[in-house]
Structures are given as structure tokens and as C-alpha cells.
Design brief:
25% of the residues lie in helices and 37% in strands.
């Protein structure tokens, strides 16, 4: 969980307009040659709300994403996605290690935002996170993870974990091991005031043309 990494991951939430389907053609979402600073990306559907479509995009830096948003190509990009999405939101996180490609390839990714309790420092949360990630590696159904901090909210940690599926994650949470790692002594959630969590089923890579 480090703030020194230059790379950022963009998490996009899109509510698909009624009667519309993004379909596989929308993975080539740029519609223009590869944007400078774009590293790789995946797309998929949210388990909790199947009408929500996700892009998970790894950038070389936040400035690269901002540059794309001010580029001449950006209006055409927005026009391309507007007809099939009724609502769009996004946030960025600096995750370690970057890019966390393996976490999003195939299966199901747990995306969780942990808002810290008042007075809890990043140093305290980072120490707890390192204990958590070492113990997490033995969890049944676990494959990979990454963690870091939200760019937009300085008091919010972001963790992504690849599981066999959502059930593998929820079964682990309910287990004695999961309960201890999350809520026991030095558990991950001891310093957390609010949790936001989603599961995303991977649907494939985003591959802009060269």
C-alpha cells in the first residue's frame, strides 16, 4: 500500500441505459489510436447490480488520463458511449503493485473502498493492511490482490482481490479464518468506519487499436 507509485488505476461505473447492451464491441472504447499512457484494461459486469458495466483501466500516471480527457479525440469518445449509458461515475486509485493486471484477468474481482475512522493515520492502516495481505494468501478461492489509496479521497484505502467467484469470497468472510483476519486482533477492519464493496465478473480485455 504505497503512494509513491506513479501509476493509477481508473475504476469506471456505467449504468447501462434501458434497452441498451454495450456488447463486446465496446471493449475498443477509444475508437482512436492508443492513448499515450494507457497500459491495459479490462471490462466486466457487476454482480450486485447486473445493469452496471465496468471499465478498469491502468494508466502510466494520472496526468496521462487527464491529458486524454482534454485531447481532441475525447469528445468523440464521449459521444460513442453516451447512447448506451444512463449514468457514469469513476474514481482513481494508486495501487501497489502497478499495474495490477493479474487481479483483473478472469474470474471475479472484489473491489472495496475502506473509509478510515476519524484519527486513524495512513501509517496505522498500512501496517494493518500488510498483516492482512500476508494472511489473505492462504484463503480458499484467493488468487491475487493489490492495495493502495484513493486519489480523490485521501482518507480512503482501496483493495482489489481476485477470487474464484463471489461465493468464494463470501464463504471466506463467514469462516472462522476470515472473521479473525478481518475483525480479530489487528484485523483489517479495526480502523475502518465505512465499507463500500462490489464484485465484478471479468468479461475480457479492452484493446484499443495501435
Amino acid at each position: 500500500m504505497s503512494e509513491t507509485d506513479q501509476g493509477v488505476t481508473e475504476f469506471v461505473f456505467m449504468h447501462v441505459a434501458e434497452g441498451s447492451q454495450p456488447g463486446e464491441g465496446h471493449e475498443n472504447f477509444f475508437g482512436t489510436p492508443r492513448a499515450p499512457g494507457f497500459l491495459n484494461a479490462r471490462y466486466g459486469w457487476q454482480v450486485e447490480d447486473p445493469s452496471v458495466f465496468h471499465w478498469i483501466i491502468n494508466w502510466r500516471s494520472l496526468d496521462d488520463h487527464k491529458a486524454f480527457m482534454t485531447s481532441p479525440e475525447y469528445p468523440a469518445f464521449v459521444q460513442k458511449i453516451t447512447p448506451w449509458t444512463s449514468n457514469l461515475s469513476l474514481f482513481h486509485a494508486a495501487l501497489h503493485r502497478h499495474p495490477p493486471t493479474e487481479v483483473f484477468e478472469g474470474l471475479t474481482t472484489e473491489l472495496v473502498k475502506l473509509h478510515l475512522k476519524e484519527g486513524v493515520t495512513k501509517e496505522e492502516m498500512t501496517k494493518t493492511y500488510h498483516i492482512f495481505e500476508e494472511r489473505l494468501k492462504n484463503a480458499k478461492g484467493y488468487h491475487a490482490h493489490a492495495g493502495g489509496w484513493s486519489i480523490e479521497d485521501d482518507n480512503c484505502a482501496v483493495i482489489v482481490i481476485k477470487w474464484d467467484d463471489k461465493d468464494a469470497h463470501t464463504d471466506w468472510v463467514k469462516s472462522e479464518e476470515g472473521e479473525d483476519i478481518l475483525r480479530g486482533k489487528e484485523g483489517l477492519l479495526c480502523n475502518v468506519d465505512k465499507i463500500e464493496m462490489w464484485h465484478i465478473n471479468d468479461a475480457g480485455p479492452i484493446t484499443p487499436p495501435e
